[in-house]
Amino acid sequence: MHQSLFQPLRLGAIEAPNRILMAPLTRGRAEAGSVPGDMMVEYYRQRAGAGLIISEATGISREGLGWPAAPGIWTDEQTAGWKRVTEAVHREGGRIVLQLWHMGRIVHPDFLDGAAPVSASVTTAPDHAHTPTGRKPHEPSRAATIEDIKRIVDDYGRAAENAKAAGFDGVQLHGANGYLVDQFLRASTNHREDEYGGSVENRTRFLREVLERLVTIWGKDRVSVRLSPNGDSQGCDDPDPAALFAAAAQVCEEAGLGFVELRQPGPDGTFGRSDVPKQDGVIRAIYTGALVLNSDYTAEQADADVSAGRCDAVSFGRPYISNPDLAERIRVGAEWAPNTNVPKSWYLPGPEGYIDYPALEPVA
């Protein structure tokens, strides 16, 4: 069943035994100091049967992390915590890459001793931020200076070096969902008039510089990126997404990335499909490496899109919350366990709804 999903796949230098990837999932279970603890070790160990685990978004710096109990990778303690995670995954025969995260304007000043968050320009995100003392409206960002940009690229570099010390198999740049890289990419949040703003080439410059730094540390075949080219994301949008993400795809192609992951609004979304006219196949047409699609797939839809060549693999997010052995369930045609106590169990501390979902009984 679903044979195309169980063909091995090269994701750059990473040999994936199947094409069912675990998408990045923020779960808010890090311990004090944004350090991965015992629960995170067990959580990732349980899910090692994925063709590749893409870790939850992980802060590259204190400035860039604005989510309660999310992990970081800028201190020795955080790095040591992640090393226990990667060792557990590798003991189970799995592979795991670290997703590098700077939230930009989505960081509330409560995380920054009252200072304004940094972004491409002075803008304010819609809706509310999650803070240690509850939901609060977002506050205006400040525009990054050239010195800020250089410093943040250095922060990405140090985080990538820490990820290597922690034993990951590679890194993924979080360039999606309205966070800092996305804030530079899209015109609604990038009002700059210097070399980082205006044209699509300028707005992709920050993306290019960060990827170039990651490649110098990891090599191009162990670096990937996640993009979300479809519509508004946390107030990030663009009037000409086809031109913008064509330019972003060219950056990825020139960098020679191991793979590109696209977050879409479902299997009928745009920008991944090779059979849809106009701009929808733009990234697939330009970027020649492995393409991974994500969001709201069933096993049948994933198998169909891989079989048709629309993508090379599919990453599953929410199904991996309650199905630690999702790949095995797909292989044997078993039902998927539903998420219970949702969304409460997604983010609250404790093992309930996190590491207490049972795997299937072994099948002969």
Characterization of the model:
The model is unreliable at 272-280 (pLDDT under 50). 31% of the residues lie in helices and 16% in strands. The protein is globular and about 60 Å long. Strand 11 (223-227), helix 7 (241-255) and strand 12 form a beta-alpha-beta unit. It has helices at 38-46, 76-91, 146-165, 180-185, 200-203, 205-218, 241-255, 282-286, 299-307, 319-322, 326-332, 344-347; strands spanning 9-11, 14-16, 20-22, 53-59, 96-101, 118-119, 128-131, 134-137, 142-143, 171-174, 223-227, 259-263, 290-294, 313-316.
Provide the fold topology:
Elements: E1 9-11, E2 14-16, E3 20-22, H1 38-46, E4 53-59, H2 76-91, E5 96-101, E6 118-119, E7 128-131, E8 134-137, E9 142-143, H3 146-165, E10 171-174, H4 180-185, H5 200-203, H6 205-218, E11 223-227, H7 241-255, E12 259-263, H8 282-286, E13 290-294, H9 299-307, E14 313-316, H10 319-322, H11 326-332, H12 344-347
Parallel strand pairs: 3-14, 4-5, 5-10, 6-9, 10-11, 11-12, 12-13, 13-14
Antiparallel strand pairs: 1-2, 7-8
Helix pairs in contact: 1-2, 3-6, 6-7
Concise account of the structure shown:
The protein is an alpha/beta fold and 364 residues long.
Task: List its traits.
globular; 364 residues; 16% strand; two-stranded antiparallel sheet; alpha/beta
Largest sheet: 8 strands, parallel
Radius of gyration, Cα only, in angstroms?
Answer: 19 Å
Could you tell me the mean pLDDT?
A: 94
Amino- and carboxy-terminal Cα gap: 16 Å
Q: How many helical elements? A: 12
What would you call the shape?
Answer: globular
Strand content: 15-25%
> Structural class of the helix and strand makeup?
alpha/beta
How many β-strands, per DSSP?
Answer: 14
Strand order of the largest sheet: 3-14-13-12-11-10-5-4
Low-confidence stretches: 272-280
| Strand and helix order | EEEHEHEEEEEHEHHHEHEHEHEHHH
Indicate the percent of residues in helices: 25-40%
